[in-house]
TrEMBL record, chain A:
Species of origin: freshwater metagenome
GO terms for cellular component: NADH dehydrogenase complex
Keyword Membrane among record annotations: yes
Protein name (database record): Unannotated protein
Pfam families, alphabetized: Oxidored_q4 (PF00507)
Automatic annotation (TrEMBL), chain B:
Record localization: Membrane
TM stretches of this protein: 15-34, 46-64, 84-102, 114-132, 138-157, 169-188, 208-227, 283-301, 308-328, 334-355, 376-400, 412-432, 474-494
Species of provenance: freshwater metagenome
One annotated GO molecular function: NADH dehydrogenase (ubiquinone) activity
Protein name from the UniProt record: Unannotated protein
GO cellular component, one term: membrane
Main location: membrane
TrEMBL record, chain C:
Protein name according to UniProt: Unannotated protein
Source organism phylogeny: unclassified sequences, metagenomes, ecological metagenomes
TM region positions: 6-23, 28-47, 59-83
Cellular compartment(s): Membrane
Membrane topology: Multi-pass membrane protein
Gene Ontology CC terms: NADH dehydrogenase complex
InterPro entries reported in the protein's UniProt record: NADH_UbQ_OxRdtase_chain4L/K (IPR001133), NUOK/Mnh_C1-like (IPR039428)
The entry's keywords: Membrane, Transmembrane, Transmembrane helix, Transport
Organism per entry: freshwater metagenome
Any GO BP annotation: ATP synthesis coupled electron transport
Length: 118, 507, 99
């Protein structure tokens, strides 16, 4: 059983050895002469305008969270969509109720003003 | 209409038996939507009133279904006496917490609609948890109760302590959930079933009692549930979360979560895992003993009342477990009886703490100093609560402990009864100073200006009642009276919890 | 493919997640580790579901995924609220209802 995987194992082992060897050799044999230009994020072209301490606004997180919640609810719809015919009317009614509940949530979020970008 | 229903191929749902759950979740939706209305008075007073109405309606539906034993949605949930009793406890705790939260800062800060609908959803989750007879519904119920509580703990958005307690509870609670889930996954792996009845048959048929996978599943399930029920040694989060959360939320959490967790422990371990009783009994016994010791010793020397009650709740959960490990009907009855008693005492205590916290801004034991002279009702309720938690005769707590010890002795675990007694004796050392602080004459001048002692003159009581809210005083008075009444005339309590296992295995 | 491989990977994931929750201090990383723990459970469920050849485990896994998303959303919400509290400019307007 192991022989089936022999090529893969050889590949992984060789890859690891070669990778490590090059990294180590580079550090041992190479020279290091840093200069400001070399240490730039982009060696050529414009210097980056974005400061390191940059943070996203609160609204970004808010919308991201709401997207995550509403997006993940779709998960429940997939199995029903695949098997709707087998489940029959009950599943359809249930899905409509489920989407209705999501709509209530959406109305709440909207009325609370969480969707306005500040 | 009938023709449409006839073509439905879905699971049979007994809507009447399902109605208590619908009452809670429907109430949550209505409360959420009403919370959007613009007049301030509706948001501040209409929303909590509606919340109480939803809890009240649920209790009404429960009484209507009192003698039913039905399994719901293909045995995913079951309505039996245990479910009904736990739901009743949760609803009473919900009403009391709503009254306590009526003037709560936290409810204003995250909007009333959100606060109270989260309370209702958490209550619904507890009912699902206590009623579940399937691993999937158990997990969903657990999360449905935990997720709203995480938010409620963090609902004082302006208080860093509240936010931190919410985050802490979320992290520890999620570790508990993940552990429980892994246990459930292994249980499913060992048996190939997710419903309790199926697991039971499979375990018996395949003789899985000593199977490694089954043992690992039991172990992880126990650890996960112990995290949720704040049992030692998985309790470290409890004092911090209880202290940081808004007091009404702490009150609800300490009482209702415990009821739901004990409910699911009884149901899961008395049905699905019953054949493995010799495997899980030692683990629960160890956890019970450690909880009683750690809770009672930890509570000694706490200066914050909420932290003290947090440790005390760990110890009380340990007492409750004694009723589980004997695996008898008497044990289950004792557990539910003790849950009732614990609910009365804890809600009375937290009501008093809520009032004092609003008046003095602190929940230190010192903030109660001189309360007996100024507000005998509050001081009396707190005294009864402390004595009941300690298990002094003539309070309901004595009846509860007596029943637990009786169940322990009956099940052949007399030494666990002795552990309960020893724990109760230690507990006197932290319950009695609270009582003493309230009734001691208030003569030391200028020791604690926060207690507002300057307003001793006439009319001060009315002013304080106004700030503290008459609702909280009402809760304290009702719970205190109930402790005394049930302590002297326990017969109604025995009748309430009698045949708690009625319809337990209804298929 | 043998069920054991699923279980080994999922046990490793669970252990990594648990260690991460214990040792990391950054709340966002802790949330990631919690996800890892829950998804370890999912992987075990799916592996067992394949072993037993029924769909119960898969349905369970879908439910768990939704629960995990809710947990992360709440965690992020609390982290954002904490962060917002430490900012000098407090975005109060968002909290109280307009009107």
């Amino acid at each position: 059983m192991l022989s089936t995987y022999a090529p893969a194992i050889v590949f992984v082992v060789l890859g690891t050895i070669i990778g490590i060897a090059f990294t180590v050799l580079n550090g041992v044999l190479g020279t290091s002469r840093p200069s400001p230009a070399k240490l730039d994020p982009y060696e050529s072209g414009m210097a980056s305008e974005i400061k390191q301490g940059f943070r996203f606004g609160i609204s970004f997180y808010l919308v991201a969270m709401l997207f995550l919640l509403f997006d993940i609810e779709v998960l429940f719809l997939y199995p029903i969509a695949v098997q709707l015919r087998a489940f029959g009317t009950f599943a359809l009614v249930e899905t409509i109720v489920f989407i209705g509940l999501l709509t209530v949530a959406l109305i709440y979020v909207w009325r609370r003003g969480a969707l306005t970008w500040k | 209409m009938t023709s449409v229903l006839a073509s439905v191929k879905g699971p049979e749902i007994d809507w009447a038996a399902f109605s208590p759950l619908l009452g809670l979740f429907g109430g949550a939706l209505i409360v959420l939507m009403v919370g959007l209305s613009s007049p301030r008075v509706i948001r501040a007073h209409g929303v909590p009133a509606l919340t109480i109405a939803a809890f009240g309606a649920t209790i009404g539906l429960l009484i209507w279904e009192w003698n039913e034993q039905v399994s719901l949605i293909q045995d995913a949930l079951i309505l039996d006496r245990l479910t009904i009793l736990i739901t009743l406890l949760v609803c009473v705790a919900g009403i009391a917490s709503t009254l306590l939260a009526w003037r709560e800062q936290a409810a204003r800060e995250i909007a009333h609609g959100e606060f109270f609908s989260l309370l209702l959803i958490a209550a619904g989750g507890m009912v699902v948890l206590a009623a579940s007879r399937n691993l999937v519904t158990t997990f969903v119920g657990l999360e449905l109760l935990s997720l709203p509580l995480y938010i409620l703990c963090a609902s004082r958005l302006r208080s860093e302590r509240s936010l931190e307690s919410g985050l802490k509870y979320l992290i520890v609670g999620s570790v508990g959930s993940a552990t429980l889930l892994y246990g459930f996954a292994m249980l499913y792996g060992a048996t190939g079933e997710t419903d309790y009845a199926g697991i039971l048959t499979q375990v018996v048929k395949e003789g899985l009692m000593g199977d490694a996978l089954f043992l690992a599943a039991i172990g992880m399930t126990i650890v996960g549930l112990a995290f949720k029920a704040s049992l030692a040694p998985f309790h470290q989060w409890t004092p911090d979360v209880y202290e940081g959360a808004p007091t009404p939320v702490t009150a609800f959490m300490s009482v209702a979560t415990k009821a739901a967790a004990l409910g699911v422990i009884v149901r899961l371990f008395f049905t699905a895992l019953l054949p493995g009783v010799d495997d899980w009994r030692p683990a629960w016994i160890a956890i019970a003993v450690i909880s009683i010791l750690v809770g009672n010793v930890g509570a000694l020397g706490q200066r914050s009342l909420k932290r003290m009650l947090a440790f005390s709740s760990i110890a009380q959960a340990g007492y409750l477990l004694v009723g589980v490990v004997v695996v008898t009907e008497l044990g289950a009855e004792a557990v539910v009886l003790y849950l009732v008693v614990y609910l009365l005492a804890n809600l009375a205590a937290f009501a008093v703490i809520t009032v004092r916290e609003r008046e003095t801004g602190s929940d230190a034991i010192g903030s109660l100093r001189g309360l007996g002279a100024r507000s005998p009702i509050l001081a009396g309720a707190m005294t009864l609560a402390m004595l009941s938690l300690a298990g002094i005769p003539a309070t309901a707590g004595f009846i509860g402990k007596f029943r637990l010890i009786e169940a322990a002795a009956d099940g052949g675990y007399t030494w666990l009864g002795i552990v309960i007694v020893v724990g109760s004796m230690i507990s006197l050392a932290y319950y009695l100073p609270v009582v003493a602080a309230m009734w001691r004459p208030d003569t030391e001048p200028g020791v604690d200006p926060a207690t507002g002692r300057a307003v001793l003159a006439g009319g001060a009581q009315e002013a304080e009642a106004e700030r503290g809210g008459w609702e909280a005083t009402l809760v304290a008075a009702v719970m205190g009276a109930a402790i005394l009444v049930f302590g002297i005339v326990p017969q109604p309590l025995f009748e309430l919890v009698g045949d708690v296992l009625k319809g337990f295995g209804t298929g | 493919m043998n069920i054991n491989w699923f279980l080994i990977v999922s046990a490793l994931m669970f252990a990594l997640g648990a260690i991460g929750v214990l040792v990391r201090r950054n709340p966002l990383v802790v949330l990631l580790c919690l996800e890892l723990m829950l998804n370890a459970g999912n992987l075990a469920l799916l592996g067992f579901s394949r072993m037993w050849g029924d769909g119960d485990g898969q349905i369970f896994a879908i439910v768990v995924m939704v629960v995990a998303a809710c947990e992360v959303a709440i965690g992020l919400g609390i982290v954002v609220a904490l962060y917002r509290r430490r900012l000098p400019i407090d975005v109060d307007e968002l909290r109280e209802l307009a009107g």
